[in-house]
């Protein structure tokens, strides 16, 4: 099975994005788990998520979102809607966004047939390739022309990639190992390349508004570093507090945090604990 990676070489500044598709998420019938997991998978490789978007099963919105993804040059994962039931639109929308026809991918067809044979064998019944439901299942391998497959270790039914946009099922048990495979097979050279890190301090007894000048000063002194403030009023461990920190790429983050920490102490704000990511 060929799984040739994209010929495009991602640049260091390329962002990572996530699309989560399905009415069941927006209606609350199912709780999304992809956002937190995608953040985790990226962080384990020294990468970070730049944006995420939730979409219902609306062809116009999905097509528009995918058009933006293809045009962006970003690495984007799309979760959900690649099945073959009437409420699955992602494959068709991807083709429309690309202006390409849909076609049965030969390797996908082979894998789907293998899966059907496996199921027939498990059930102790003969494999009937021409049975209408089995013929219909091949639609799960109909991708935009020129797509590459993403192996599915759970049940062999593949996802697909076009450029830097990667399509996986909505089921976490399938989607997560498939996303890991993409990150490790297509973007191994990007691991740790972003050198992204975050450092922060838990501060009690401080007012966020009075810390704004300090935050602005740190960002001005250390270009490329983002300062963040996360106030909390009901934390079970720290109670009322502010998590104040910096994030960015490279050693400048440590320098910026050292300056931030020193000024907090000078202002008389006790640091309860410090966090590093």
TrEMBL record:
Domain MoaB/Mog: 17-190
Gene3D superfamilies to which the protein is assigned, alphabetical: MoaB/Mog-like domain (3.40.980.10)
Protein name: Putative competence-damage inducible protein
Organism from which the protein derives: Paracidovorax wautersii
GN (gene name): cinA
